[in-house]
Amino acid sequence: MQTHAAKRVEIIIEAPMQGRLTDALTRAGVTGYTVLPVLGGSGRSGEWTREGQVGRGGMVAVVCLIRPERLGNLLDAAFTVVERHIGVVSVSDCEVLRAERF
Amino acid sequence: MQTHAAKRVEIIIEAPMQGRLTDALTRAGVTGYTVLPVLGGSGRSGEWTREGQVGRGGMVAVVCLIRPERLGNLLDAAFTVVERHIGVVSVSDCEVLRAERF
Amino acid sequence: MQTHAAKRVEIIIEAPMQGRLTDALTRAGVTGYTVLPVLGGSGRSGEWTREGQVGRGGMVAVVCLIRPERLGNLLDAAFTVVERHIGVVSVSDCEVLRAERF
Amino acid sequence: MQDILSLAADNLLSPMILCFALGLFAALARSELTVPEAAAKALSIYLLFAIGFKGGVAVADHGVDGGLISALLAGVMLSFALPFVAFGLLRGLTGLSVTDAAAVAAHYGSISIVTFVTAASVLTSQGIASEGYMVAVAAAMEAPAIISALWLVSRAGSGAQRMDADLWREILLNGSIVLLVGSFVIGMVTGQDGMVRIESFIVSPFQGVLCLFLLDMGLVAGRGLRASRGVLTAGALVFGVVMPLVGALAGLAAGLLLGLSTGGVALMMVLAASASYIAVPAAMRVALPEANPSIYLTLSLGVTFPFNLTLGIPAYVAVAQAVTGG
Amino acid sequence: MQDILSLAADNLLSPMILCFALGLFAALARSELTVPEAAAKALSIYLLFAIGFKGGVAVADHGVDGGLISALLAGVMLSFALPFVAFGLLRGLTGLSVTDAAAVAAHYGSISIVTFVTAASVLTSQGIASEGYMVAVAAAMEAPAIISALWLVSRAGSGAQRMDADLWREILLNGSIVLLVGSFVIGMVTGQDGMVRIESFIVSPFQGVLCLFLLDMGLVAGRGLRASRGVLTAGALVFGVVMPLVGALAGLAAGLLLGLSTGGVALMMVLAASASYIAVPAAMRVALPEANPSIYLTLSLGVTFPFNLTLGIPAYVAVAQAVTGG
Amino acid sequence: MQDILSLAADNLLSPMILCFALGLFAALARSELTVPEAAAKALSIYLLFAIGFKGGVAVADHGVDGGLISALLAGVMLSFALPFVAFGLLRGLTGLSVTDAAAVAAHYGSISIVTFVTAASVLTSQGIASEGYMVAVAAAMEAPAIISALWLVSRAGSGAQRMDADLWREILLNGSIVLLVGSFVIGMVTGQDGMVRIESFIVSPFQGVLCLFLLDMGLVAGRGLRASRGVLTAGALVFGVVMPLVGALAGLAAGLLLGLSTGGVALMMVLAASASYIAVPAAMRVALPEANPSIYLTLSLGVTFPFNLTLGIPAYVAVAQAVTGG
Ligand SMILES: Nc1ncnc2c1ncn2[C@@H]1O[C@H](COP(=O)(O)O)[C@@H](O)[C@H]1O
Ligand SMILES: Nc1ncnc2c1ncn2[C@@H]1O[C@H](COP(=O)(O)O)[C@@H](O)[C@H]1O
Ligand SMILES: Nc1ncnc2c1ncn2[C@@H]1O[C@H](COP(=O)(O)O)[C@@H](O)[C@H]1O
Ligand code: NA
Ligand code: NA
Ligand code: NA
């Protein structure tokens, strides 16, 4: 099966910022992303859990597969949104099927 | 701690296809997988979100850790299911504890 | 954008063990982690799904980004908790933004 | 005519329809108001259970006459036949591909249980009786249309349809069919004894629950419309309001042939006029993945569902009353 | 006997049991009907709150007599003792390892609150009174059995049990104990005044909510049975119906010794006869991870729970009536 | 005084407050009792819909007098003004940074709809009437405080505020405002006709649903308190109980100036005294990300909310009665 080198970027960010992040990604030329729910976590700003929350709090994980040459753009875009906010960004190498989709 | 080289395959696929995918994986000799919920996403077929949906729509992420030598089989199996469908497949290198489990 | 080498550890574990795992991680000097919900899966102990469950069953995925030099500690800590339990641990290389956070 | 208008006004100003409108407005204005998926599913389980159970109790009260069987048969035949009409209309009115047109056609042969539930509650509030077994007819009409659509595609040679045994099981045992038929049978078996026990759960709060559910349907429909701006051509829009009228006429004919009561005729019209947006879309994703989901979802949920809810139901009820003299 | 049979038939044809059967059928037929996890948890919170509150109000009405304390003690003792009986039976009837047998035994010493709730609602619908504090007895019986099971394992030297302080807290403050005891106390404190305020929430719709909850229990039990075909030997199956009968006898003896009312005796039988499938499984995953969850879940949820629900409860009620002359 | 105390005791021993206390206890004792997020959101949708609808029906019954407009204006002005008072108090009482103090101040200018709902249900159960349009006032008071807070920050030059068009839309069309105003309008349009249809859904079970919701609020507040031990200084704690009293006085003045009924004055006091923990926190995360969420959430949800719920509401009601002679 033919695979193609790509990057997998995972951004864990506060839910109220999700729309701003995905808008910024789209502007940076990202063609797709997937949003996963997050149950809870811990970091410099303490521990939290989603259970019983009523508001639009909590965090989400945004996963984005892209061609390696677009990584710089994506990270710049993500950074402007995440910069002043709680959240983490990680990047790993991967291979994708059907490269024409990215 | 002793670790062993493995592959992490992540398949994002339409929920109605989940059973067909995991059946195909099992037939291809995969011994385990984990299904994660997906809140929403965007791709060539547009943007979508899970909120308020009533039917069995949306997507799921299937994560599968396998021995490197089984990757070809797994991708072939996954591809036959995903081929005509919305979805993405990515593969990355990883290390696992307790290799006897895979 | 400046990135820094790190490790991404993903631990899929039974929900009743989640607190014990994150406590052990914290004791091992881990500064952050994120917990993702799991819908279902399959492994040596069979297939299961979260739907309709009433108790605190099921599994969760704990994702942890750390500096490479702390990996050994983390795996030791995770292993003592996971050892006798259902679950899988995988590690992959990644790059993170804002290294001062880890 | 006067009557139809005042009935329509009554319907349009009911809390249910206004809740749907609120949801539509909120979604189109991009408010972040959302009903959690789990809550929406729980509400739909409640509605299906309540409507099925009540239908079963009604049948237990009045006894099963031959009408049940013939109504089931008529429903199945309508569901088989309507996709052909829809397909013809679509090929005439729009430039949709065979696959897309067939997928849309499957939705219009099948039914929308929420439209049915809303119509049933309009009938109740106007004191118009209907056959309890219409619930079973609704269940029977969910699936046959899918077969017609797949046959249309295979005849055109475009895309192998994939009707494996798994898909059959998924379609015939999909959640809403099982729940509707199951609770219908439970209602039939337990009759008034069972009803007394759970009446204050499934009867009194019913319309209120329906309000919240329609709020969510409005949100989902509005989000769908927003996401798929420009997907529908003018021809497709026309289809979205003409097809329910064609379906309603077919339902009217069937209802009169069967000799149903006024309420029964109205419900048969509603079933034939409504389009699925739960069971059929899932089946299409499996069997006709090449068909574009935005098209069929937007048409059925964004155009036909609101049309039936607001103008269709009062019109069908009024016509049924006029024709049956009820 | 005549009476028992007609009571059993009545029970089997109640909407609740039929809903359970529907769920079971849907899961075994692999329908994709599911109740969302969040909805199932919300329903169980409702049921626990309602049953606890009603028990508390009943105690407030009748005053706390000495019966409360002695019934609590009896419940705790039963919960401690029954695992030993279960363990002995299992070692005789099945080839289960010490660890697996002990884990199963813990479930049968503990209780199933849904079985209790169903029995309470059967009593209510038959107009049989019972002590309000039986709810507190139910809560008290959840945990002790776990200790007996761990002691059985440690005695056999197979696998160090891990009863750390955290686990103690988790067991004693598990969600259902806290909610049951908490709402019991709230009911006791607010009495009829509080009841008037929330009656139309916790009393009238109760049986209807129970229907939907049992539908989900049927789905969960059915999926469990399907996933673990072949896990249970014939001996284990026998245990799954014999053990509740043994438990019920022990509960009968305790109820008579305590001088409980007819309803109280029946509920004591139900508690002793039922097996946990929420609190104990979670505790076992932590304390006895080597025990196979398929075995204990399938037995308690797939065999004993349906048995109690369908045949057990009417039998226990009938016996309690015969023996107390109530 | 005697009256206030007995009213407070009555309130403290109501099922609602006891449920809140139970949740608080469970969370502080680290019980794993939790209400699923989806269920909590569904309950809040129910409460918002019911309170909005009932307010609208009340207005439909009594006609819209000029009072609606002036009360809306007064509410908006209070929401604008209170953050300045809160900011001043915070800078005096605590060492919070400008950003943190401004963020907290925004919460206290805005309102807590659950506090409002609880107060409304206390009034109902005491037979004290209030203006139906107070629901609209509540909606109008949600957002203005945010603007004052951002102005405070920008004036101090610390941190550029980011009020882009998106944020405006999110704040003004946030879920609870849309639902509250929407259901208020629906209630106004459908009036008693609509009420009759859904009364047994939104009126009778209301207090029971509120109990479960407050149980969850107790859990969330307790978890918050536990997670942020040591975050609050003594000065901040003092602020958390003094500020609601200051707010209540301002609300009292406004209510009297407007010539509201006894219930209306009490509700105006409650609105001014309460602090937001849904809409404002989300806005602050976007607009003032540097502000520490533990501080504002712990103060508003962990200190002021319980204070208002237990002692505040009965006190405000009693004062309103004394002052208006109602
Ligand atoms: N090292 C980490 N690994 C994984 N997730 C993290 C890590 N640090 C922070 N997070 C996630 O990001 C959220 C905010 O982190 P922080 O900004 O450090 O408070 C946490 O609640 C976690 O969900
Ligand atoms: N580049 C990508 N990175 C991450 N997820 C993607 C990407 N492209 C598509 N997806 C996911 O796959 C779904 C279907 O994609 P598509 O088939 O391109 O419409 C989207 O809704 C996303 O959830
Ligand atoms: N190879 C695998 N890849 C991904 N997830 C796995 C794998 N094996 C096991 N799991 C997950 O871990 C759970 C328990 O596995 P096991 O201990 O093998 O029964 C499964 O239900 C899956 O969710
Ligand atoms: Na139709
Ligand atoms: Na027992
Ligand atoms: Na305020």
UniProtKB/TrEMBL annotation, chains A, B, C:
SUPFAM superfamilies: GlnB-like. This is Nitrogen regulatory protein P-II. It comes from the Bacteria. InterPro entries: N-reg_PII (IPR002187), N-reg_PII-like_a/b (IPR011322), N-reg_PII/ATP_PRibTrfase_C (IPR015867). It comes from Pseudotabrizicola sediminis.
UniProtKB/TrEMBL annotation, chains D, E, F:
Signal peptide: none annotated. It comes from the Bacteria. This is Sodium-dependent bicarbonate transport family permease. Keywords: Membrane, Transmembrane, Transmembrane helix. InterPro entries: Sbt_1. Pfam families: Sbt_1 (PF05982). It comes from Pseudotabrizicola sediminis. The chain crosses the membrane at residues 12-30, 42-60, 66-90, 102-120, 132-151, 171-189, 201-222, 234-258, 264-283, 295-319. The lineage of its organism: Bacteria, Pseudomonadati, Pseudomonadota, Alphaproteobacteria, Rhodobacterales.
